[in-house]
Amino acid sequence: MTNAWTDIKNTDLVVVMGGNAAEAHPCGFKWVTEAKAHRGAKLIVVDPRYTRTASVSDLYAPIRPGTDIAFLSGVINYCMANGKVQWEYLRNFTNASFIVKDGFAYQDGLFSGYNEEKRDYDRTSWDYVIGEDGFAVTDPSLQHPRCVWNLLKEHVSVYTPEMVERICGTPKEKFLKVAELISTCSAPGKVMTSMYALGWTQHSSGSQNIRAMAMLQLILGNIGMRGGGMNALRGHSNIQGLTDLGLMSHLLTGYLNMPTEKEPDFAKYMETRQFKPLRPGQTSYWQNYRKFMVSFQKAMWGDSATAENDWNYHYLPKLDVPSYDVLRMFELMYDGKVNGYICQGFNPLLAFPNRAKLTAALSKLKFLITMDPLETETARFWENHGEYNDVDTASIETEVIQLPTTCFAEEEGSLTNSGRWLQWHWAGGTPPGEAQHDTWIMAQIFLRMRELYRKEGGAFPDPLMNLSWDYADPNEPTAEELAREINGRALTDVMDPADPTKVLVPAGKQVLNFSQLKDDGSTMCGCWIYSGCFNEQGNNMARRDNHDPDETGAYLGWTFAWPVNRRTLYNRASADLSGKPWDPTRKIIEWNGEKWTGYDVPDISPTAKPEEVGPFIMNQEGVSRLFTRGMMRDGPFPAHMEPFEAPIPNVMNPKMVGNPVSRVFVTDAEEFGTSAEFPYVGTSYRLTEHFHYWTKHNRVNAALQPEFFVEISEELAKEKGIEKGGWVRVWSKRGSVKAKAVVTKRIRPLVCDGKTVHVVGIPLHWGFTGAAKKGFGPNSLTPFVGDANIETPESKAFLVNIEPSSGPEEASA
Ligand SMILES: Nc1nc2c(c(=O)[nH]1)N[C@H]1C(S)=C(S)[C@@H](COP(=O)(O)OP(=O)(O)OC[C@H]3O[C@@H](n4cnc5c(=O)[nH]c(N)nc54)[C@H](O)[C@@H]3O)O[C@H]1N2
Ligand SMILES: Nc1nc2c(c(=O)[nH]1)N[C@H]1C(S)=C(S)[C@@H](COP(=O)(O)OP(=O)(O)OC[C@H]3O[C@@H](n4cnc5c(=O)[nH]c(N)nc54)[C@H](O)[C@@H]3O)O[C@H]1N2
Ligand SMILES: [Mo]
């Protein structure tokens, strides 16, 4: 989230599109209720299904899964054509005025530079014109035909209301009502918030869905504003923490990049990272990259990391492919290239696509270790459950070792919520049986491996032997020790840059925040964006002051938000060029002639003059981007692409299948179904009563939603002779499942490009362990393909067929 859950109460308009917050985020949804009750805010829901969120909306519009880019581009087109633009914000705070190189173009669904063989773009033409002074050339009058604004205008002009209806199946009148209501938020005193989750991410063009809305929010001037922003509703209680702390295979902590093969030494790695400002006078905050990186390496390897050995840069793995995401890892397993797999707090057999392929992949391992408090389907993948898990147990030789762990309620630590708040919690119970904390298990694996290396030697033991392991009890680092390490401290006295005779941070003391980090080895820090969470003031994540002076919803004394306790990102953009709030009733920060004051931690230097520094200091431009220079693999503007399995051809280019730069593994190419064989659109989602695959172990939840079902419209039920509550078989190119049919008015047929499109809704909570009835889940059906930029699987739009059937057969043995 750019903002926070509590900030949603400040909005005028909530757009829930690509999510279902009332059911998947019921606790956070109360802030929407708050905004409606106390501000008279309106709620728009755009979803293929009439959800419980839709049931309390002011305006609901149906949409075909996987077509949100067309819809949002249609809204952008509407706003541009009708002058519904926050002009001053647009001119000063976005790259609308930047001139783009001549070679850049878009035609037949493709941008310039496409290479069909490589399934990739040469992105060199997706760039600005750079002047002789080294700065990007701009036209503040927005008249230049090749400025970003005019290129965007042309790009979105095809997304007329008629085109939106043709692609999305959203009736034109409904679309126009949505567009009109959204466009009112271009007024500086009106603000809209975007709340989204998997309905946008789990698509082969998921990243571009989000970009499309972010661009709309910039055009309306809603980023950095109270009650505005792009608010990703994160899933698991600590999934924000997962990405922050570098658990993605291509990231280190704090969104520093994992080195690649093309960066064999530290100098080469740094060459492309300390971005030079692209406009005169701008701050480009990544110029501090080296401080964060060196401090991270010092946290990893302590004294052995020195200037002479480039802080042990050679210890870091170098990626030979863009990432080792879950799809790629399972592909490698499937190809027999992986011996062992440690699966910690993850149930991929139910969570990832194409279950038959996953089972085959797990069957090729020599060993599988699971770390989980519960019995998972992944740990039991080899067990035959008749039609529910039809495997040949005898032929599987994988050795499975189950390590029972505790769960969050049985341990101390912090969870980072969607609003970037690091919230400390305390253990609420003692672990049952043989269960151990994850930290204890990981420490044991490390200590025993190190011992083996010490005794037996081995290839390249240094990164392991020299790993910094500075904990009171090496057998189990405590949560506090880890948090202090993540915050960072001075290793030798750190001198004050303003007065080099004065010690700023004495050796051994915690740094205040990342502004005190150095690139000379005098500081260490596990995760720079978290620095400040546990400094000499103590554990700031444990703070529980719930005062909210002036009722802004900021709660600055409650826990700690990264970065530096800032609650609204880009908050400089909440004020105009002179530093006055666009809307005085929504003040966040304000320039008082000498410094920035207000209700939040400013995201520029507190004394930086308002007209001098742009509000987007993490961008080289100093402003935000309506056009990205080669950052997005599939285009600098979002463009409509169909899912890999779609009921109609891409109207921009009928020959195009899916996202043209999404990775497709060879074995999956023939696994995509066509609409002739599979006429219906499958989509998958969660229910309030269950949390994925673990609450089915709990009898109360199991009783609330006992049995796997699919949802279809009355029209489809009639057409297929399917009875309410009767058994159906649903199948795709990759598998077949059986379910009870829920026939509902909440899903309606759509008409896309002249064709009637039926949606089959498939909730995801069932498997073959736990207290609920056995079931299958949508991932027996979903395709093994993901987003072009980040490889999130395309779970929300695929093709299926459906027919009445008999119930499933249990295992005979
Ligand atoms: N009760 C409960 N709450 C949960 C979870 C749970 O398992 N149970 N899981 C948590 C996790 S990890 C996550 S990630 C979040 C997920 O939170 P959400 O994304 O809100 O949850 P989903 O149910 O997957 O819903 C997505 C919604 O998007 C709609 N949709 C599908 N395709 C499209 C599309 O192409 N466009 C649009 N506009 N909408 C589409 C679906 O119909 C559905 O209503 O929920 C979290 N909260
Ligand atoms: N078709 C389809 N597929 C989907 C989705 C969809 O919408 N449609 N949603 C996707 C999404 S967003 C998600 S997040 C995934 C969810 O997929 P998973 O993350 O695999 O699902 P969970 O059941 O939440 O699994 C987490 C496991 O962690 C265990 N656990 C809990 N606490 C601890 C702990 O402290 N330590 C350890 N070691 N283990 C612990 C639980 O017992 C559980 O078995 O599913 C994905 N798959
Ligand atoms: Mo999730």
TrEMBL record:
One of its GO terms (cellular component) is periplasmic space. It comes from the Bacteria. Keywords: 4Fe-4S, Iron, Iron-sulfur, Metal-binding, Oxidoreductase, Periplasm, Selenocysteine, Signal. It is found in: Periplasm. This is Formate dehydrogenase (Quinone-dependent) catalytic subunit. It comes from Consotaella salsifontis. One of its GO terms (biological process) is anaerobic respiration. The keyword Translocase does not apply. InterPro entries: Asp_de-COase-like_dom_sf (IPR009010), Formate-DH-alph_fdnG (IPR006443), MoPterin_dinucl-bd_dom (IPR006657), Mopterin_OxRdtase (IPR006656). CDD domains: MopB_CT_Formate-Dh-Na-like. GO terms for molecular function: 4 iron, 4 sulfur cluster binding; electron transfer activity; formate dehydrogenase (cytochrome-c-553) activity; formate dehydrogenase (NAD+) activity; molybdenum ion binding; molybdopterin cofactor binding. Residues 1-381 form the Molybdopterin oxidoreductase domain. Pfam families: Molybdopterin, Molydop_binding. Its cofactor is [4Fe-4S] cluster. Transmembrane segments: none annotated. Belongs to the prokaryotic molybdopterin-containing oxidoreductase family. Residues 683-797 form the Molybdopterin dinucleotide-binding domain. NCBIfam families: formate-DH-alph.
